[in-house]
Design a protein that fits this description.
homodimer; DNA-binding
DNA sequence: AACAATCCATGAATTCGGTTCACAAACCGT
DNA sequence: ACGGTTTGTGAACCGAATTCATGGATTGTT
């Protein structure tokens, strides 16, 4: 039935419009200022129409986060092809994430908000799964690099730890640093600047601690910086 | 003026009552369920009275978090006296934090919520500072251990990184793992269990990567477990 | 002790914004 | 063209945070 298809497409397009506009409004006015009625009228629809697409405001926010996550995840798909050793590929993941966070400062904040238990509970099962699924390629990329590193002998296979659990280390380090960096005033209060530069050094310490070869010494900032530059150049090259 | 003093004390006591009761209500019914009017009547006061103490609900929550943080911070004060090497003292910090998080599952969630930009903005300057100040001893404990380790030669002094910035690594790792562990369904979706056990292994990898002596090999779970047991025993001994 | 002035607890009223729903318009097949 | 159904509308609803006019308690004064 052709008409059915068209309606489905139109519905889809409208949902996209809502999500894009919401993202835009969040970018300009902040998460706090987003109001369902304002969003609706900005899209030239009635408030009720929003609720034909999203079960709640949190649900809408989850949809926004999902969309952004899908775009983000896209960058990881071609990672294994890069002309980089496994350890540098892992660094490439962290750098990609870092750059993405810098370009989308709201995204981490939004994710942090959504993953708060109180908020998470307000999101429909369906959207929660969609969000997790969207993030899957990122997790897969991490596990994939770990597996390849183990196969190639770059990374000793430690007992009782899966590739996913290995990847949890850099993931948590990254996540934690983003949270801390985003909490306005927190790190400043402790005289800590440039948290994200330090993230890279701690990342190398972590990798070296697991004996992931070839080692990069976290002690020497210039070495760490040079390796980041090298990997960034490869990423730049590969992705236009 | 004695009467003034008494009134101050009573006011203080009432504020404490509000904070304690709020903490209790959060423990039993969850953060989501906390209502200002319910809290007020649970304390046998009118709603408006709450607002003589707290500028907003977020302000109240910050006060709850501050109180808990002060209790938590207390545990770090006597840390330098412990009969442990510097690296084990650092582990002691992580373990203390871990145990505290296990005993106060709401605290991390509450902190995560409060540090969300949207929420943070709702808290009065005063309370924000109080919360940061309350956490200061923890940060001091971390920096202190790093400094002592450097002095004793357990930890090489890396270039361009302060003691605070060194401590940022384990802090971020810890924080990130807590966030991930708290996001219901997130780690399960990626087949990761026991995230906090893995935290300890990654912690040792990080420390070893910075060449903090004496090394503990993250590869061997039994070694990691044994070291945790040893340090836990010392903590147990010291703090009754 | 009586009185005025001040303070401050009270809880009903206000406000705000997310969510619902009765109605109407648009759409569909006959 | 017409009945039936689906979909969009936005005013009304509702819950919960916050405010504020009120009155009772407390303090200071004569």
């Amino acid at each position: 039935m052709g008409t059915e298809d068209r309606k489905q497409r139109e519905r889809q397009a409208r949902e996209q419009l809502f999500i894009d506009k919401a993202h835009e409004l969040i970018r300009t006015d902040g998460l706090l200022a987003l109001q369902m009625s304002k969003l609706a009228s900005a899209c030239e629809y009635a408030t009720g129409t929003l609720y034909q697409h999203f079960a709640s405001k949190e649900d809408l926010l989850a949809a926004v986060a999902t969309r952004t996550t899908i775009q983000h995840a896209e960058r990881f798909r071609r990672l294994p092809e890069l002309p980089l050793g496994t350890r540098s590929q892992m660094l490439a993941i962290v750098l990609t994430d870092l750059d993405f966070a810098a370009a989308n400062p709201d995204h981490y904040r939004l994710m942090q908000y959504l993953l708060t238990e109180a908020v998470w509970a307000q999101i429909s099962q369906e959207r929660r799964e969609a969000l997790l699924t969207a993030a899957q390629p990122i997790s897969d990329a991490v596990s994939g690099v770990v597996e390849r590193a183990r196969e190639k002998g770059d990374l000793p296979v430690a007992r009782e730890i899966s590739a996913e659990e290995m990847g949890l280390g850099p993931w948590a380090l990254n996540q934690g640093m983003q949270s801390l960096a985003n909490a306005r005033g927190l790190l400043e209060a402790y005289d800590i600047g440039q948290p994200l530069d330090h993230l890279l050094r701690h990342f190398h310490a972590l990798m070296t601690g697991w004996r992931w070869e070839p080692r990069v010494d976290p002690d020497e900032p210039s070495v760490v910086r040079a390796e980041s530059e090298r990997v960034r150049a490869v990423l730049q090259e590969a992705f236009q």
